[in-house]
Design brief:
Length: about 220
């Protein structure tokens, strides 16, 4: 493998539950009371797909695109307050530093938009030299493959030489659609079995364990 493509939330930074609470509060303000577990399962999807899935699950009349747009903005504002202190997940910073020092190509492909991810990128020590493909870069977010395909294209390597690292079943579904080998981390809260069922080829505890296992994935400097 010559290039790694990382998801962000739940893979490199500990933000999945902040997203869950932010969505729960935004939906509650709109009169939609939802258990956190139903939201957590959908973190990683675009806001539009997340809201549509929730309203369908609760047998509510579909919201207008304007209403969904308002919920997305409200979620972003609440998330910014909840996630003012961004914490990298175990091993994430050292893994990225190793890849940079070893000149192993890598990038980030995230459904989140740039204003939401700035604190995370800063906490990870990521500067303008690291490729970041966010939700504004493509027309369709996960579980479509567009984000990963765009990141792969910009890295300049064929799909067969890339490795996707994610934490959610949506990452695994998108990786399969992109035709790229994918491994999963448990740091986003999905179970090992769910991740394997979704197409993960290997599952690791977190970025620290992945770092120690790069050789078995044929990722070598």
């Amino acid at each position: 493998m010559k290039a790694l493509i990382f998801d962000l939330d739940g893979t490199l930074v500990d933000s999945v539950y902040a997203h869950t609470v932010a969505w729960q509060r935004a939906l509650a303000e709109a009169g939609i009371d939802v258990p956190a577990c139903q939201i957590h399962y959908r973190v990683g999807l675009s806001g539009r797909l997340l809201v549509k899935g929730i309203t369908r699950l609760h047998q509510r009349r579909p919201l207008s695109e304007g209403d969904i747009g308002h919920l997305e903005k409200r979620h972003a504002a609440l998330f910014s307050k909840l996630f003012s202190h961004c914490a990298p997940l175990p091993g994430a910073v050292s893994l990225l530093q190793f890849l940079h020092k070893s000149k192993i190509a890598h990038g980030i492909a995230t459904t989140s938009k740039r204003p939401e991810i700035r604190p995370a990128l800063k906490a990870l020590g990521i500067d303008g030299k690291t490729l970041v493909v966010d939700g504004t870069s493509v027309e369709r977010a996960k579980p479509d493959a567009d984000l990963f395909i765009e990141c792969q294209r910009r890295l300049g390597f064929p799909a067969s030489e890339c490795l996707i690292v994610g934490d959610a079943i949506w990452d695994m579904h998108a990786a399969q659609r992109a035709g790229i080998f994918a491994v999963a981390l448990l740091s986003g809260g999905f179970s090992e079995q769910d991740l394997y069922n979704a197409g993960a080829r290997r599952v690791y505890a977190d970025a620290a364990e992945l770092h120690q296992s790069l050789d078995e994935l044929a990722v070598l400097p």
